[in-house]
Design goal:
The complex is a heterodimer of chains A (about 375) and B (about 300).
Chain A lengths: L7 H6 L2 E5 L6 H14 L3 E6 L4 H6 L10 E2 L2 H6 L8 E6 L2 H12 L3 H8 L2 H8 L4 H14 L6 E5 L7 H15 L1 H9 L13 H14 L1 H32 L4 E7 L1 H5 L2 H11 L6 E7 L9 H11 L7 H31 L5 E6 L8 H11 L3
Parallel strand pairs in A: 1-5, 1-6, 2-4, 2-5, 6-7, 7-8
Antiparallel strand pairs in A: 3-4
Helix pairs in contact in A: 2-17, 5-6, 5-8, 8-9, 9-12, 10-11, 10-12, 11-12, 15-16
Chain B lengths: L6 E6 L5 H14 L4 E5 L3 H8 L9 E4 L2 E5 L2 H13 L2 H8 L7 H4 L3 H13 L7 H5 L9 E5 L3 H17 L4 H13 L5 E8 L2 H17 L4 E9 L6 H9 L10 H23 L7 E5 L8 H8 L3
Parallel strand pairs in B: 1-5, 1-6, 2-4, 2-5, 6-7, 7-8
Antiparallel strand pairs in B: 3-4
Helix pairs in contact in B: 1-13, 3-4, 3-6, 6-8, 8-9, 11-12
Classes of the chains: A alpha/beta (about 375), B alpha/beta (about 300).
Chain lengths: ~375, ~300
């Protein structure tokens, strides 16, 4: 039987490793641990996370996740038992507004049009608060970092959206919006003089925009037109980039790791995700089953538990051995149930084209120390 | 608990059991005599199993006396909203079944969130709060309370922010008027309650504390209750836990050590559970504690059992 190397083969095959999965499965931790594993194997690694989790930052010796690339000091890692050799570990958090601003700055043709966008009221909201923007910008960031050749391996965490599907649909949606005649009509309606007039628009589109205006109110439509026309020159760039991103994401440079927990597998969330990915021509290269409760051997008799406790000098209150056995019953029931479920899943998992499968045990304490992150990295690599 | 509001927004970190809690809260309110509608935007298969119905579709399905469930699809809701506002099929067709617009609405950030929130709010009675009850006789359209099984934290916050965004960017018009009315309902503790669901574990608690701060202090939304889900009943005292955690156990135990191995894990998780739950006390919120069930909740009897804790 070949040695189980977990996700290590993926590190050899792909430069970009994308962790996908629904919310709450530990995707960010898996991404960080995988990046650590890559760095331990001598790769210059960038981990791009979406989650501002301070505790993840703490587990890497930082106060918070930085919006700029920050390389973890090798000395600090060594103190915590992690030897990187030639490798390095750099982390950064996706800052949606920062990325959007950066994009506007790099694509705007003049300082004037740049300021017109950055100062637009509507833009302020779209670039910070609204759903969907984060996915667009995650996508955008993927392209930016891919062009950066100072990294051998780039690990990406994806937004914690339901089923994480938005991440893959974001560029398509964006192209749809940009392609819609309604949007082009808005651009046209914003005359070169900077005044808004629907009279200059083709009658059919004008009618549509007027109807939209009945819902939104005219001034909002005007503001939208202002923003859209200011961003018009960026849109060509956006559209081309969104197309390119999808194209690239299908290439073998990208590897996909679905992260799940026994509970999320039960609800077939991962199946939906992989199906949708397949529709887009994306493979699922590996499955990480996180937080699996470890099942151990058969439970002993009460008498043996009592003898063991007294032999070890473990003093508990009244009915100590009974409660130890009770704890063992409850905890092992959970573990055994998960084990059975995972066995039943094997057939379903094979149907995906036999991706690599890795399980990470549930720790009794949350993962937030560098030692723990290293431990998870070990499990990801088949330890 | 929560028997007086008409709009309840259930949110929390992914994986904490929001759908189960929404179903249980719905069952509780229905048992208290309120006509209750549980709104499920995603994961309808799971909700249907919990509520013991074959499926949850776009029209409210009666689960039990007084308890209904419905699925809101944001895109359908957007179309309905258009039709309602425009009051004309012709204009509606102009707008939605129009090749010029195709794709436009699907991609505009925030619109789907508004459609979800707006529709759920409308089902709870909309602007007047009474309009639905007095205006329509049909059993499917009049509810005392809507329980929205909202998206997880990050996305859930975006949903709640949308009315404010609309109020900030739209100087006037129907959209703004509706957003203002919805916001007035959401911020009124007599009418609405945010319900935070958390596990008593480190990471979920940290996120819950942040969420509570954002909701209450930044957005001014009323938090009606905290639900601590999947609690294990402690088997060991704090001293016993410390003793057990000091006991050396091999990773692969044998014989009687197997029991000790599990007991040490249990002691550790009980410690984390207690410390985490204590951290939430600073919120001073009415708290519902739901026990961890021996099996994953899978039917209405489980939901009913949990409902008794509200």
């Amino acid at each position: 039987m070949p040695e189980n190397r977990g996700l290590v083969p993926l590190l050899d095959r792909h430069r970009m490793l994308v962790c996908v999965g629904s919310g709450g499965v530990g995707k960010t931790t898996v991404a960080a641990a995988l990046a650590l594993a890559a760095a331990q194997r001598g790769r210059r690694t960038l981990c791009l996370t979406i989650d501002p989790a301070r505790r993840l930052a703490n587990s890497l010796g930082l106060d918070s996740m930085p919006p700029e690339q920050v390389t973890i000091a090798p000395e600090w890692l060594r103190e915590h038992g992690v030897e990187l050799g030639r490798g390095s570990l750099t982390v950064m958090m996706l800052d949606t507004k920062h990325t959007f601003d950066e994009l506007v700055r790099s694509k705007a043709s003049s300082a004037e049009s740049r300021d017109r966008i950055l100062n637009n009221h509507l833009y302020q909201y779209i670039s910070t608060h609204l759903a969907g923007t984060q996915s667009y910008m995650a996508m955008e960031k993927v392209l930016m970092v891919e062009e950066d050749d100072s990294y051998d391996t780039i690990v990406l965490d994806t937004p914690p959206m339901h089923h994480a599907l938005d991440f893959f649909e974001a560029p398509e949606r964006m192209v749809e919006v940009i392609d819609s005649p309604a949007l082009r009509g808005l651009v046209q309606a914003m005359q070169t003089s900077g005044r808004f007039s629907l009279n200059v628009v083709a009658r059919s589109i004008g009618a549509v925009l007027r109807t939209i205006g009945r819902i939104t109110g005219g001034p909002l439509l005007e503001e939208m037109a202002g923003l859209v026309s200011a961003m018009n020159e960026l849109f060509g760039g956006f559209q081309e980039r969104a197309g390119r991103v999808l194209e690239q994401m299908r290439s073998s440079r990208f590897g996909y790791i679905a992260v799940s927990t026994p509970a999320s597998l039960r609800w077939s969330e991962v199946d939906v995700l992989t199906d949708r990915m397949r529709e887009r021509g994306l493979r699922t290269d590996a499955l990480v089953i996180n937080r699996v409760h470890p099942a151990r051997g058969r439970l002993p008799e009460l008498g043996d538990v009592a003898s063991l406790l007294s032999a070890r000098g473990i003093e508990l209150g009244a009915s100590g051995p009974e409660r130890v056995l009770q704890a063992a019953r409850e905890e092992s029931a959970l573990a055994e149930r998960q084990k059975q479920e995972l066995e039943q899943l094997q057939e379903r998992l094979r149907a995906w084209g036999a991706p690599i499968q890795v399980t990470v045990p549930a720790f009794a304490v949350d993962v937030h120390h560098p030692e723990r992150l290293r431990e998870v990295a070990g499990f990801l690599c088949g330890a | 608990m929560l028997e007086n509001q008409r709009f309840i927004f259930v949110t929390g970190k992914g994986g904490v059991g929001k759908t189960t809690v929404s179903a249980a809260l719905g069952a509780h309110l229905a048992a208290a005599g309120r006509r209750t509608l549980v709104v499920v935007p995603t994961g309808t298969e799971k909700a249907a199993r919990l509520l013991g119905v074959p499926a949850i579709g776009n029209t409210p399905v009666e689960v039990r006396p007084n308890l209904y469930a419905v699925h809101i699809d944001p895109e359908d809701a957007m179309r309905e909203y258009g039709l309602m506002v425009l009051k004309s099929r012709l204009l509606y067709d102009t707008l939605f079944d129009n090749r010029y617009v195709r794709g436009f609405f699907r991609g505009v950030p925030g619109l789907r969130e508004w459609a979800l929130l707006g529709k759920a709010w409308f089902l709870s009675g909309g602007a007047s709060g009474e309009q639905q009850r007095s205006g329509k006789e049909g059993s499917e359209s009049s509810f005392d309370v809507v329980v929205l099984d909202a998206p997880a934290t990050g996305h859930g916050m975006e949903v709640l922010r949308v009315p404010r965004v609309i109020m900030d960017v739209a100087p006037g018009g129907r959209l703004r008027a509706d957003a203002e009315a919805a916001w007035a309902t959401l911020t009124d503790p007599a009418q609405s309650a945010m319900v935070l669901v958390s596990l008593a574990e480190e990471l979920p608690v940290t996120e819950t504390l942040e969420l509570a701060h954002t909701l209450a202090d930044e957005m001014g939304l009323p938090i009606g209750a905290l639900v601590l889900n999947m609690l294990k009943s402690p088997l060991f005292s704090p001293t016993e836990r410390a003793t057990l955690l000091d006991a050396p156990v091999p990773t692969f135990p044998e014989g009687a050590e197997v029991a000790l191995y599990y007991a040490v894990r249990r002691a550790s998780s009980e410690t984390v559970q207690e410390e985490s739950a204590n951290r939430l006390e600073e919120l001073r919120l009415p708290t519902v504690r739901l026990p961890l069930l021996p099996e994953e909740p899978s039917g209405f009897s489980d939901v009913e059992g949990l409902a008794g804790h509200f």
